[in-house]
Amino acid sequence: MELRHLITFKTIVEKGGFKRAAESLDYSQSSVTVHVKELEEELGKPLFDRIGRKVFLTNYGRQFHPYAVKIADLYKEATEIMQIDDKPKGNLVLGVTEIFSQYRIPSLLLEYKKRYPDVNLSLRSLENKEISAALKNGQIDLAFVLERNDWFDKELTIEKLKEESVVLTYPVNQENVENTILVTEETCSYKSMMETYVQENQIEVKNTLNFSSLEAIKQCVISGLGFSILPYFSVEKELATKQIQGENIQLNHTGNTTFIAYHKNKQLSPAIKSMISLMKEHRLHWDE
C-alpha cells in the first residue's frame, strides 16, 4: 500500500472531488484516478460511488477513511520530527593534534558551545600518528589536523583548510645554539622539515633534543636552548614581542596544511556538520 495513494484518497474526501484533489496535490486528474483505482484493487473494495460528476464514499470508503487519515497524519508528524531533529545535539568527539590544544581550537570550541548548547562536546588531544586509527575505529568523530600537504588516507575524507607558513625560530641571544636543534616525535612533519633544513644548509648538528610537543619546543627556544622550525601561528605573538627571532623559510619539499578529516563512511550528524561549517568560518580570520 503506497502512502501517496492514501494521501490522494484523504485529499479527495477533504476537497470533495477528484479535480480539486488533483489541483491541491499538483497532480493530473488522471493520476488521481489511477491512485484510487490501484488502492481499490489492493483493498478489493470500492471506496467511491461515482454519480454523475460527483463522488461519494461507499460504506467501505467511510470505514477506511479514518485509517487513511491516521496513517497520513503520522507520516506528516514523523517528517516534521525529522526536520526538528536537524538541530545539532548529541555527542561529538573531536580529535586534534597537540598544537591545536593551545591554538585556534579554544576560541572555536567556545563559539561552538554558545551556538549549539545541546551538543555534548568532547576533545581528545592526539599525536599525528594516532589520528587515522582513531577515526577508523570510531574513537573520534572528526579530526582537526596539522599535517604535510600531501597527507592522504584512502579510508578518510580529508578537506584542506589552510596551508600554513613555517618559521625558523631561534633565541634572541644566539650564543651556543647554532648546533642544537629541537625536534618533535618521529611522525610529526616538523621533525622532517627540521632535518631537511639542516641537510640543505649543511649545518653540522652536535645536539638534537626531542620533545613531545611543539609548545614545549617554543618555550625552549625562548629560553635560549636551541633553534627549530615551528608553524607561524604558534609563534606570532612571541615574534611581535621579540621574545624570539624568526624568519619565514621555503623548503624544497612539501609544506604543512591544516586539515579536517573524518571516515569516508561516516554518517555526518548535524553536530558534525555544524562543527565543520564553523571551522571553515573561523579559518577566514586566522590571519587577522
UniProtKB/TrEMBL annotation:
One of its GO terms (molecular function) is DNA-binding transcription factor activity. Keywords: DNA-binding, Transcription, Transcription regulation. Residues 1-58 form the HTH lysR-type domain. InterPro entries: LysR_HTH_N, LysR_subst-bd, WH-like_DNA-bd_sf, WH_DNA-bd_sf. The keyword Lyase does not apply. Belongs to the LysR transcriptional regulatory family. This is LysR family transcriptional regulator.
